[in-house]
Write a structure and sequence with these properties.
546 residues, alpha/beta, Rossmann fold, 7-stranded parallel beta sheet, 20 helices, 16 strands, 14% strand
């Protein structure tokens, strides 16, 4: 969470509705320079005090629009993007409606009173942390429920008693079907980033979860876009919702206009060299490098680590513990370069990202805006560099045309091109490695990997891509691209033979451990190929082999 705000020059849309709250909100939008405090909006003292501890005292515009309605118990549809402050827009009303203090002589209920459904694990952890902070003084018990980690700690937390559950659809549904998650007392439901859940195919799971909730509840739905399926979902499960639109039609253009953009046509063999120089740009802070595939993502992270950069990778082949380790290290400043795939980066909201590098050309204009929108937030400047392969020029031209940019013919660029140095303020003495004097960050190895008892893919932390001493270039400790640690990869490869990709693992291990003896026959009897003697049961075995 952050106390910073979006530029007030970016006007929000008026609220659609006829209630007195809507009129008051629309009136406040006419004077956007008057920052509204949480006290003015009726936020309870314990929540205000908890937010003040982290420097948050005034509301974002989406919060100013949402809180009066939500605090009164109205259903709300909030159309807002990631990074606009919507977490507190639904989080404060959710926390304020909790019964966190038991009446004298009674025990506090252990069943969740509020449920927040989010599309990704990373967003789940982030939202749970924000709500925990906001509810820290009032004593709200918040738990994150998501896949990729062991069931037991999550089940134990539920048994001890919780007030708010933040979870991903799959794990929530699993626990509820096993009767380990009781949703019968939920009074507030939040569906966050509903359009992302639709894109990821989670909508049937979401509907199954909502069907288990009490009919009398408050429902808040937040989505950057409102496709037909989301509108239908709102009609089925919400009661006379007020539609708050905190997204301007011109927001896409505003995002593009606020960011310094560079689009270069790069050669695949020179990309890492070029990237290494981009990462030495003047005033570069936190940087996200977007890559299309998991294998290339890990490969680039490893190579940057070998070149002295404090870097972490986030992609689907890493275990959940390694992914959370990477994000914690990036947020805390132990590493300042995060190499990520688009899917793994969904829901990640990190402040103060100064540079975004599209190492792989985005799929379309929406992906481009989603990537570059990670920088240039809260009125700050940002830099976006896009590297376009020769084969991707046509795709880029479609993106360029859709967004009305001025880069229809990307400039042919190499790591030694003069415009790279002058355009980004890179020192001319910069090479493909970070100078030792500049290697001041602790690196990924300084961030401990939490033992999650993972149920998903293997793979712990990768210290070699955290700015620490790496393996040499002879192949020792190289990434296998499968999310394994070095020791796991070495042990795995030693148990396999060439060309075994198409072979069944069980059969292969059996054939490698048992030598098959050649059989000969004498007088119609099968004999052992080594001694020539007939072995018991060989006749039956031979029949089976045939």
């Amino acid at each position: 969470m952050s106390g910073r705000h979006r530029p007030l020059s970016c006007r929000d849309q008026p609220v659609e509705g006829t209630s007195p709250h809507c009129a008051a909100i629309n009136e406040s939008l006419e004077n956007p320079l008057n920052a509204t405090s949480f006290a003015d909006l009726g936020v309870a003292d314990p929540i205000r005090a908890a937010l003040a501890e982290v420097g948050i005292t005034h509301a974002f515009q989406i919060q100013e629009m949402t809180l009066p309605l939500a605090l009164d118990g109205h259903d709300v549809i909030g159309q807002a993007k990631t990074g606009t402050g919507k977490t507190l827009g639904f989080g404060i009303p959710l926390l304020q409606r909790l019964d966190v203090v038991s009446e004298p002589g009674t025990t506090r209920s252990g069943k969740p009173q509020a449920l927040v459904v989010v599309p990704t694990r990373e967003l789940c952890v982030q939202v749970a942390a924000d709500l925990s902070q906001a509810g820290s003084i009032s004593g709200a018990r918040v738990v994150a429920i998501y896949g990729g980690r062991a069931f037991e700690p999550q089940v134990d937390a539920l048994k001890k008693g919780v007030d708010v559950v933040v979870g991903t659809p799959g794990r929530l549904l699993d626990l509820s079907r096993q009767r380990l998650l009781d949703l019968s007392q939920v009074r507030t439901l939040v569906l966050d980033e509903a359009d992302e859940m639709l894109d990821m195919g989670f909508l049937p799971d979401v509907e199954s979860i909502v069907a288990q909730l009490p009919a009398q509840r408050q429902t808040m739905l937040f989505s950057a876009t409102m496709p037909t399926q989301i509108v239908s979902l709102a009609k089925r499960y919400m009661t006379r919702p007020t539609h708050i639109r905190a997204v301007n039609p011109d927001d896409d253009n505003a995002t593009v206009d606020a960011i310094e953009q560079h689009v270069w046509r790069a050669h695949a063999m020179d990309k890492v060299e070029l990237l290494a120089r981009v990462l030495q740009a003047t005033d570069r802070g936190r940087t996200i490098v977007f890559i299309r595939t998991k294998r290339t993502c890990q490969k680039v992270a490893d190579e940057l680590g070998q070149r002295g950069f404090a870097v972490a990778a986030v992609h689907g082949d890493l275990g959940q513990g390694a992914r959370e380790q990477a994000l914690r290290a990036f947020r805390s400043g132990k590493v300042d370069v995060l190499v990520a795939t688009d899917v793994a980066a969904r829901g990640i909201d990190i402040d103060d990202v100064t540079h975004v590098v599209n190492y792989s050309c985005p799929e379309d204009e929406k992906v481009y805006l989603h990537r570059v929108g990670r920088t240039g937030r809260a009125g700050k400047s940002g830099v976006a560099v896009t590297l376009v392969d020769w084969d991707d020029v046509a795709r880029w031209q479609m993106i360029n045309r859709a967004l009305g940019l001025a880069f229809s013919e990307p400039v042919e660029t190499y790591s030694t091109s003069e415009h790279v140095y002058t355009g980004l303020g890179i020192p001319h003495e910069a090479t493909g490695s970070l100078p030792r004097s500049a290697r001041t960050l602790p690196g990924l190895a300084a961030e401990e990997v939490e033992d999650l008892g993972e149920t998903g893919k293997r793979g712990g932390g990768r210290p070699r891509s955290g700015g620490t001493k790496s393996a040499d270039r002879r192949g020792k400790g190289k990434s296998t691209g499968k999310g394994r640690s070095n020791q796991d990869a070495a042990r795995h490869s030693s148990q396999r033979t060439d060309g075994d990709e198409a072979a069944d693992g069980h059969k292969k291990s059996k054939s490698s451990s048992q030598r098959r003896h050649r059989r000969r026959t004498r007088g119609g009897k099968a004999t052992n190929g080594t001694s020539g003697t007939t072995s018991p049961g060989d006749k039956a075995t031979s029949a089976q082999d045939v």
